C-alpha cells in the first residue's frame, strides 16, 4: 500500500506528521508492504511549514499512478483576514498551484482513496471538487466549506466513500486510525492504538443507516423567521446600477450590481468588472429599512456562495460579504 502525504508551503506540521506516524506504525503489524512518504506537487526538495517556517523534506513528487492513499493536510498561520499569510491565503495559493489538477485527478482515480485533515478539505473545496460531497474541516472553516457547495458534517471523521476527511488538527490521529481499520482491519488498528496509548475518538459519520429525526424550531421562531422574510420595504432606494468593491482574504473583487423591480419582485445581477461575461444572479434579496441582504454565487477568485448584509447611506452601500466566519468589506456607490 502506498500512502502519499502531500506537503506545500505553509502546511500544518501536526496535520501531516500525526497520520505519518500512525500509518508507519501500522506497517509493523502487517505483512503487507506499506510505504509512507511525504510528497510535493512538483519537484521541490523541501517546503516551509506554517509553524515557524520549519522545513520539511519532500521525498518525491506526488505520483497518481500508484494505487493507495493520498492525504491532503491543512495549513497553519494567522486567521487575520488582512494577513497575506493567513490560513485561507496559504490554502488558496496551494489550490492554485500544480496541486489543483492533481487533486482532481486523484479524486477521479478509482484506485486512490483521498483523505484530508483539518483545512485540507478546504483546500480541496477551493479546487471545486467537493460540491455535493459530505466532508468536515476545522470548526472555524465549516461555513466556508458550505459556501463552496460541499455538505459540512459536524463529526470527528467523515467517510464519504472515496473521500475521508478529519476535523481539527488533532483529528489526524483519528482519521489515520480509522483508515487503518477500514483498509487493514480492526485488529491492526487496535494494535496501533495500544502502541500509541491512544484510542480513536468519536463516531465516524457515514451517509448510511436510518436517518435521524431532528428537532424542529419552535412556533415562535418560525413566526419570527416568516416575518423577517416578508419584510420588503423601500425597494426603490436601491434600484439601478452600483459600482461595488469587495476586499476578501483571497483577493479583491469588482462588480457592477444592478437592482430592478420586476413585476413587484426585487431582482438583481452582479457583473464582474474584469470579465463582463461573468454575471451572477442575486438570490433571496430582502430589504428591511436600510438593511439589505442577499446571497450570491461567485466563481472568482474561487467558487463560493457569499451572504451579504449591507446598509444604504445616501448614495453609498456599505456592509459585509460573508463566507462562513470570514467577513469581507463591501463598498458600493451609485452609478450616475
From TrEMBL:
CDD domains for the chain? GATase1_PfpI_2
Q: Which residues cross the membrane?
A: none
Top-level taxonomic group: Bacteria
User: Can you give the residue ranges of the DJ-1/PfpI domain?
Assistant: 2-181
GO annotations under biological process? regulation of DNA-templated transcription
Name of the featured protein: Thiamine biosynthesis protein ThiJ
Q: Which organism is it from?
A: Alkalihalobacillus trypoxylicola
